[in-house]
Amino acid sequence: MDYITLINYIKNNYSFEWLTNNQKNAYNKLKEYLIYDDVINLYGKRGVGKTFLGWVFAKNNNFIYFENEETFRNYRTKTKINAIIDNSTLKDGRDVRRMVSLKTHKVIYISKKKILDYGVELKLDLNDVEYVLNNLSPIIGKNININIQNLKIDNFDLWKIFKGRVYGYQCIGIHNK
Predict the structure, then answer these.
(1) Domain extent for 37
(2) Each residue's pLDDT tens digit, 26-65
């Protein structure tokens, strides 16, 4: 298996059921916060599942997912849309609001840091790691020996787990058979 095969498997098979408990909680908070404000911030460290949550939210809620701000800016529409904008570069909530004001009804802006009043932080925990690996077991194998008790969750992310499984190197707390 190579990295592209793994990513394509995820993109072709994901669903709401694939969300971890922390992602489901964040998903529900996003829906709630969109009642109070039209521009919401989903934020968290690299590799905690923000992009994946954005894909699922877009698929289930009539939002268009944009992989970055440039793609959003280049998108042409005659009617206002609901958008999820990932891989943010803006650091000020006012700049985000200016950027989206003419094209959107509702926006979820994905960033590493909180930059808007209504923000939902997504965190990764050990149960999330195990759940994600179980979702991917049809392609990466079911007999994964994971020492998740020793996993240093603050310094680790799902991308490192994926790369470790694909390329066969050992990551902190991950042991490939």
Answers:
(1) 16-121
(2) 999 999 999 999 999 999 998 899 999 999 999 999 999 9
